[in-house]
């Protein structure tokens, strides 16, 4: 391969790229901006792993000890941000979307809940006013609320005034009821034991919040994030910069393919073809310039993330470079594929935009692939972006060594080889 | 065919696209210091003929000899003997004239001082030496046409193929291009000039090849062509009259 024409073509492509300010901004600045935004959403280190709180409103129409305890419990929950508007205000807040769920505790809830807890009383209803577009958050609030209501009701029943009064009232009712004798005997025994427990407690102790124990969660959770090391926190920026950099370098390379078609349309290929330059030299030079640009986009993006967001290569630096180079080569040959199979710049641009968006979406560049159905997670193994993102994640926050880079590297090189083969076979060289 | 004085020999070229025969058994020669006009209406097969000679398309039949030797593949070094001035303005508007010429020169493996000297010489010839560092986007249409010509001269080709090089050019720039071509002819270059402007070939061409429907229907000097047509009163026939007689239709049909 003649080297002077080869390097001249590489240099020319780089010159053209860097003289186009829009391309530079779109390829370097935009991914950094978007990745910074996504990184800040998906638990970057600056927010101390504090989860995003769900905004709920609690309308307490009961003002009983139980409803107050539910409100207090929700107020201290790390997952909730609680306000206490009126019911009309709460409905308006949910309708406007500023509050996800409003909980209406109706008058008489505490008494009814207590009765239902031990006896056969009718279960009271809690009304959840919710935003229908945020079903996932509704499910979370429902679960959290169950915990706080159970704790509040059981606490009151086993240690509060309402519980004492309820036992005193319920015992004669049970004794005079028509339930089967053996069942009645057991229930009377249990309620009598609870009544005895109340009477033997000193008032001070009985009123101590620490001692007023009801049903609580029977376990605690010890969360350990499996990152590169026990002292290393998950850095959401590492994933978001990998995803966004890959997305935009694919866009840049698709654009390079479209530019090739434009060059053909403008007659520039005639000049190239009339020179003693082979098809392979031309395509290889494009692959080289594309790989250099892609690598620059990746490294600049990660460089920014390292300086500003303290993203670190916790795995292997060599592995990171290998995955980056394979990723860049895959993207560059994808650009050649665009040029080879595109009929015209306009149609190629439309089709490749769709193709890139599909690839990055399915490859986990926007949202992690674990949210996909199982069949789709398996299907995304044929998407090169999946391997690129997984490979970069492995080398950054997951902290896996060189072995973690091997498979993504091989697969990405395989994709690059396939794209190159198809591009060289389908390249409409003679259409110039 | 293939005499040693011929710089370009085209022998029995044929090219079809599906059922359409674009070039049909075309043969002619081009000698050193000669400018041959390839004249024909749109769709006559002029551009396809030029593309076949320049190696942009493989012929179905026939051969092209440059300096008596057949071109062999895309990367054949003998392609250095041919310079192509495409009909399109095949330039990168975003780059300076110098960057464009450095790139096009490097395609012929020119580099360093030799490349810079070739750039200076080509730009001097087309009268754009003072605009060398300006972006091509800032050039007028006529200047771009002249730069398009300069880009084809860097490797000092023996044969220059000019595919309608004056399309959309103002009279002043057209004259400048004509002067450039006469200079090149004086330097011994062989020039094949396609056009459908009769006055251009009348002014420039030593010989005129008339093509229609992919075939060469005449290959002669201007005088020779004019002598084929009798005029009322015995005067010289115009080239347009010659063309009408040969093809049965106007050049601009």
Question: Topology of this protein?
Answer:
The complex is a heterodimer of chains A (432) and B (253).
Chain A: H1 3-19, H2 21-41, E1 54-60, H3 65-76, E2 80-83, H4 87-96, E3 101-105, H5 109-118, E4 127-130, H6 135-159, H7 161-175, H8 181-200, H9 203-207, H10 236-265, H11 268-274, H12 279-309, H13 317-341, H14 345-362, H15 374-379, H16 384-395, H17 403-426
Parallel strand pairs in A: 1-2, 1-3
Antiparallel strand pairs in A: 3-4
Helix pairs in contact in A: 1-12, 2-10, 2-12, 3-6, 5-6, 6-7, 7-8, 10-12, 10-13, 10-14, 10-16, 12-13, 13-16, 13-17, 16-17
Chain B: E1 6-17, E2 20-31, E3 35-39, H1 46-54, E4 61-66, E5 69-70, E6 82-85, H2 97-106, H3 112-125, H4 141-150, E7 159-163, H5 171-186, E8 190-195, H6 198-204, E9 207-212, E10 215-220, H7 222-227, H8 239-247
Helix pairs in contact in B: 2-3, 4-5
| Structure classification of chain B | alpha/beta
The number of helical elements of chain A comes to 17
The geometry of chain B reads as: globular
CATH-level-2 architecture of chain B: 3-Layer(aba) Sandwich
Oligomeric assembly: heterodimer
Strand segment count of chain B: 10
Which term fits the overall shape of chain A?
Answer: elongated
Number of domains of chain B: 1
Main features:
heterodimer, A: 432 residues, mainly alpha, D-Maltodextrin-Binding Protein, domain 2, 2 domains, 4-stranded mixed sheet, 17 helices, 4 strands, B: 253 residues, alpha/beta, Rossmann fold, 6-stranded mixed sheet, 4-stranded antiparallel sheet, 8 helices, 10 strands, 32% helix
Note down, in words, how this protein is organized.
Chain A contains 17 helices and four strands. Chain A folds into two domains: 6-42 and 240-431; 52-207, D-Maltodextrin-Binding Protein, domain 2. Chain A is 67% helix and 5% strand. In chain A, helix 10 runs antiparallel to helix 14 (345-362). Chain B has helices at residues 46-54, 97-106, 112-125, 141-150, 171-186, 198-204, 222-227, 239-247, and strands at 6-17, 20-31, 35-39, 61-66, 69-70, 82-85, 159-163, 190-195, 207-212, 215-220. In chain B, strand 1 and strand 2 (20-31) form a beta hairpin. Chain B is globular, with a radius of gyration of 18 Å. At the A-B interface, helix 1 and helix 11 of A face strand 6 and helix 2 of B.
């Amino acid at each position: 391969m003649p080297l002077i024409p080869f390097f001249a073509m590489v240099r020319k492509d780089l010159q053209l790229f860097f003289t186009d300010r829009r391309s530079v901004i779109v390829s370097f600045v935009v991914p950094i901006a978007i990745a910074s935004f996504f990184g800040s959403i998906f638990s970057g280190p600056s927010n101390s792993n504090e989860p995003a709180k769900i905004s709920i409103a609690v309308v307490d129409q009961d003002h009983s000890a139980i409803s107050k305890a539910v409100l207090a419990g929700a107020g201290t929950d790390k997952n909730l941000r609680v306000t206490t508007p009126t019911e009309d205000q709460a409905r308006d807040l949910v309708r406007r979307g500023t509050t996800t769920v409003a909980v209406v505790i109706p008058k008489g809830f505490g008494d009814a809940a207590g009765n239902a807890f031990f006896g056969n009383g009718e279960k009271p209803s809690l009304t959840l006013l919710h935003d229908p577009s945020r079903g996932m958050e509704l499910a979370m609030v429902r679960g959290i609320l169950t915990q706080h209501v159970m704790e509040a009701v059981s606490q009151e029943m086993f240690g509060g005034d309402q519980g004492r009064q309820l036992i005193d009232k319920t015992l004669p009712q049970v004794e005079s009821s028509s339930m089967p004798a053996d069942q009645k005997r057991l229930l009377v025994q249990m309620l009598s034991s609870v009544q005895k427990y109340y009477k033997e407690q000193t008032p001070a102790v009985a009123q101590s919040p620490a001692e007023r124990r009801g049903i609580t969660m029977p376990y605690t959770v010890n969360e350990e994030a499996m990152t590169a090391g026990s002292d290393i926190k998950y850095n959401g920026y590492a994933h978001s910069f990998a995803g966004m950099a890959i997305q935009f370098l694919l866009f840049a390379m698709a654009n390079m393919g479209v530019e090739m078609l434009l060059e053909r349309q403008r007659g520039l290929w005639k000049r190239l073809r009339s020179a003693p330059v082979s098809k392979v030299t031309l395509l290889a030079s494009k692959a080289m310039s594309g790989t250099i640009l892609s690598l620059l986009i990746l490294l600049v993006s990660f460089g920014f993330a390292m300086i500003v967001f303290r993203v670190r290569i916790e795995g292997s630096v060599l592995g990171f470079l290998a995955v980056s180079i394979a990723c860049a080569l895959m993207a560059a040959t994808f650009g050649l594929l665009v040029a080879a199979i595109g009929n015209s710049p306009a149609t190629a641009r439309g089709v490749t935009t769709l193709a890139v968006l599909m690839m990055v979406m399915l490859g986990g560049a926007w949202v992690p692939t674990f949210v996909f159905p199982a069949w789709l997670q398996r299907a995304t193994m044929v998407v090169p972006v999946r391997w690129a993102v997984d490979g970069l994640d492995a080398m950054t926050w997951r902290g896996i060594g060189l072995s973690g880079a091997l498979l993504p590297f091989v697969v990405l090189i395989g994709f690059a080889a396939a794209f190159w083969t198809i591009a060289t076979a389908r390249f409409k060289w003679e259409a110039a | 065919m293939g005499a040693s004085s011929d710089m370009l020999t085209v022998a029995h070229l044929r090219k079809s696209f599906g059922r359409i025969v674009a070039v049909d058994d075309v043969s002619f020669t081009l000698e050193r210091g000669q400018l041959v006009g390839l004249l024909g209406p749109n769709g006559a097969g002029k551009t396809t003929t030029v593309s076949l000679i320049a190696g942009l398309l493989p012929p179905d039949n026939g051969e092209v000899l440059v300096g008596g030797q057949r071109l062999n593949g895309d990367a054949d070094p003998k392609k250095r003997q041919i310079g192509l001035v495409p009909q399109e303005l095949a330039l990168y508007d975003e780059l300076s004239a110098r960057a464009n010429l450095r790139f096009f020169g490097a395609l012929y493996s020119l580099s360093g001082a030799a490349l810079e000297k070739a750039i200076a010489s080509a730009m001097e010839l087309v009268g754009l030496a003072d605009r060398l560092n300006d972006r091509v986007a800032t050039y007028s249409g006529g200047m771009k046409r002249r730069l398009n010509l300069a880009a084809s001269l860097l490797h000092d080709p023996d044969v220059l193929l000019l595919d309608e090089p004056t399309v959309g050019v103002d009279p002043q720039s057209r004259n400048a291009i004509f002067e450039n071509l006469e200079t090149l002819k004086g330097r011994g270059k062989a020039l094949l000039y396609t056009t459908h402007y009769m006055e251009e070939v009348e002014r420039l061409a030593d010989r005129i090849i008339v093509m229609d429907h992919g075939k060469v229907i005449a290959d002669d000097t201007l005088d020779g062509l004019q002598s084929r047509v009798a005029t009322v009163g015995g005067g010289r026939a115009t080239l347009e009259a010659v063309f009408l007689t040969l093809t049965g239709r106007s050049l601009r049909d």
